[in-house]
Amino acid sequence: MLRIWLFGFIIVLFSACREKAGEYTISGSLQNNKYDGEIVYLVPLKGANQSNVDSTIIKDGKFSFEGKVDSVGIFILRTRPLLRFKLEEILIVKEPGTVLVNFGEDSFATGTALNDSLQKWKDHKKIFAKTSYALSESGKNDNNVIIEKMETLKSGMRNYYTRFIIYNSKNIVGKSVFQFVKDELTEEQIIRIRKYLEDE
Q1: Residue 144, class by beta-carbon neighbours within 10 Å (0-12 exposed, 13-18 middle, 19+ buried)?
Q2: Residue 150's pLDDT band (boundaries 50, 70, 90)?
Q3: How far is residue 108's CA from residue 34's CA, in Å, rounded to a whole number?
Q4: Distance of alpha carbon 117 from alpha carbon 19, whole angstroms
Q5: 118 within 8 A of 173, measured Cβ to Cβ
Q6: 89 burial class (0-12, 13-18, 19+ CB within 10 angstroms)?
Q7: How many CB atoms lie within 10 A of CB 26?
Q8: What share of the chain is helix, strand, coil (3-state, %, to 5)?
């Protein structure tokens, strides 16, 4: 029991040291070895070019990236286009610490504060999208009840996005999500959010 406790303590201590040193690790896993030999790319969300795109090869159903964090940024983890239906590309925050990625048809990432926060937004976004699609399919006959439910759903989505962005207004996740969704927000919500984004 003592040995297990010491081992756990060493891992935590090692992770903390890596974070202080500004080092990151992205550790990815797949359900099987089907995609061994395929390349995974780590692409900056903005300004991607040959000098700042990293890549690695899937081996034994796993892959990893590691290095130093010069500045916290959002990246896209993706494979070649033909595989993206089976290996969903995913947004990743490159920040100090270890990010664990489950890479598959419904990819997700956890392990650091900003990645955990970004994953919560992605989860909600998927729920909204699935619910909206289901409502639109059932409302093809212009059923007024369905239309009202759709408007309620969209209003709830906008309110969630607003709360999320304000809560994360001082980090790159909130600022990036605002750029992703601002066209879906009301003018009042945009004005309210910008007050928080500019109040630094």
Answers
A1: exposed
A2: confident
A3: 19
A4: 18
A5: yes
A6: middle
A7: 26
A8: 50, 20, 30
User: For the segment 114-146, what is each residue's pLDDT rounded down to a tens digit?
Assistant: 999 999 999 999 999 998 888 877 766 667 778
Structure tokens at 140: 């093809």
Name the maximum alpha-carbon separation found in the chain: 66
Taking phi first (over 0 means left), then psi (-120 to 50 degrees means alpha), and beta for anything else, what does residue 14 get? Answer: alpha
Helix (H) or strand (E) holding 100: strand 97-102
Q: Residue 36 pLDDT more than 80?
A: yes
Q: Give the residue from 155, 154, 161 showing the smallest Cα distance to 129.
A: 154
Take residue 23 and report the two structure tokens written for it. 């080092």
CA nearest 168: which of 99, 118, 93, 123? 118
From the number of C-beta atoms within 10 Å of its C-beta (0-12, 13-18, 19+), residue 56 rates as middle
Q: What sign has the CA pseudo-torsion 101, 102, 105, 106?
A: negative
